[in-house]
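Let's study a protein:

===
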Amino acid sequence: MYYFIVNEHGGSGRTKRTWQKVQKLMDASGEQYKSFSTDSETAATEIARKLTENAAEDIRIIVVGGDGSINGVLCGIQDFSKVSFGLIPSGSGNDFARGMGIPHNTRKAVQQILSAGDGKLVDIGCVEKSGAALRFFGISAGIGMDAIVCKLASVSRLKAVLNHLGLGKFIYVILTVRTLFSMKKEKVSVQFDDNEAVNFDGLIFLATMNLRAEGGGVPMCPDAVPTDGKLSVCIASGISKLRAFLLFPKLIMGKHAGSKGFFLQDCTSVTIKTQNPMAFHTDGEYCGDVQAICIKCLKEKLRLLSC
């Protein structure tokens, strides 16, 4: 049985049209399926929780939506060992689909799900606070500028306009420039695995990546892969805002490694402590302000319906 969780209000109407195509393809396939409509990440989390909390057998959950809907579903799954996860992308950023090699074409995405067999195991990330799991993520988690951008994008009217024009990912570029010159830089202590903590003064952002890109395709960690049991961390700190702005073209092209002000590190876990509360996000969803969190890689935690 395939269980589709559909954000019909996503993508300024694009997801609803995508779902109509998916229904026709599933009807033609003869496979059994059920669908659940959602209008928020919180609702998607609750649907996934109810589907998986007492699952007696393997179930296949398919998201029709964007990165926010994916994050909501991941955070609701109660037993990953009994779930196979699929995606029909229809969001504005689609970083998860891009990073996992899932086709944007609806027909191809459905065909891939139906022919995936047992699929493949991929890593996801987990955010912990005081030893308790708070959230899971498939793409990234971070503090600072990119989290502030996520917070602003969630309430931006311009995002809806750009989504309607098929230019939704440009909202992140616009808000990033605005946020950079208005935000306050912070002092942060970062511990990679069990190594001694390192202080970063004037931190602009810290992005913990499971996939290579976030924010509509910005390759924070160009060498990150979701099957190596590691997270890749990108930190920008210790430089002026103007220099950071001038380095953005390098960042967008994935050529920032080695540039002054950027620090890249692979690890299985990263512990972050900040002097002041800082905006935090998972998969582009603002999760409030934090001062102390631990982010871990969960190796081969998610079974992905992908060839």
